[in-house]
Design brief:
The chain has 248 residues and is an alpha/beta fold. The chain has helices spanning 18-29, 41-53, 68-82, 105-133, 154-174, 198-206, 216-227; strands at 9-12, 33-38, 57-62, 87-90, 136-141, 179-186, 189-190, 214-215, 238-241.
Length: 248
């Protein structure tokens, strides 16, 4: 175990699988106490057990983040159980693909509720206390789909584009009070959620210099970097971790 984040507490949403799980494990490895948040109790407890088995400290808090009340409840419970939150990783999200004309209002509301509203109100609940202490780090997980136009990605891409703008706005708002706000923008990445999309992942990745999909651990390393003092002069950045996909 490392000690770079010793004495800090990190809240990671959507941490029961994929990038969120990898980020929770990596932050714990660096010494942070990690609040693992997600909907699946069994998977959440498994992440906690894995972190503890490796010598880290973690706890699980169930939350579906479906509305502002659920978001506020998670923030309050995190503070109650962990004392304070020093690092917030807004990772939870859903990514339905499909034609704009086939998108239902229910799907639209669900995507924006989780991908935009949840991070917005978590920051609203947790950033003021970080600012009062004079330090904190907020890392948003966006996507390369927020940077490029792609058929079938209007709903998902636009929600993450909103989070990209929020990253910059929050950096301007809270940076002067000691909170660093940045984002990681993954490209095609192999996770449980993309398990049925192997051919699509390969096609997207083939265009980039790396020539392959990424792994959740590779994205988590970037999240961890932005959470540590190694990124002390990094504010409002959108860090592409996409194998160079958006560079070509």
């Amino acid at each position: 175990m490392s000690s770079e984040l010793s004495g800090t507490t990190a809240l990671v949403t959507g941490a029961t699988s994929g990038i969120g799980r990898a980020a929770a494990v990596e932050l714990a490895r660096l010494g942070a106490k990690v609040v693992v948040s997600g909907r699946n109790q069994a998977r959440g407890q498994q992440v906690v057990e894995d972190i503890r088995a490796a010598g880290g400290e973690a706890l699980f808090l169930a939350s579906d983040l479906s509305d502002a009340a659920a978001v506020r409840s998670l923030a309050e419970r995190a503070k109650e159980h962990a004392g304070q939150v020093d690092i917030l990783v807004n990772n939870a999200g859903i990514f339905p693909f499909g034609p704009t004309h086939e998108t239902s209002e229910q799907d639209f509301e669900a995507v924006y509720a989780l991908n935009v509203k949840a991070p917005y109100f978590l920051v609203a609940e947790l950033a003021p206390a970080m600012a009062q202490r004079g330090h904190g780090a907020i890392i948003n997980v966006t996507t390369m789909a927020a940077e490029i136009g792609a058929s079938g990605m209007s709903l998902y891409g636009s929600s993450k584009a909103a989070l990209t703008l929020l990253t910059k706005a929050w950096a301007a708002e809270y940076g002067p009070r000691g909170i660093r706000v940045n984002a990681v923008s993954p490209g095609p990445t192999r996770t449980e959620g993309t398990a049925g999309m192997e051919e699509e992942l390969k096609a997207l990745a083939a265009v980039g210099p790396a020539g392959r999909p990424g792994t959740a651990d590779e994205i988590a390393s970037a999240v961890a970097y932005l959470a540590t003092d190694a990124a002390s002069f990094v504010h409002g950045a959108i860090l592409p971790v996409d194998g160079g996909r958006t560079a070509v």
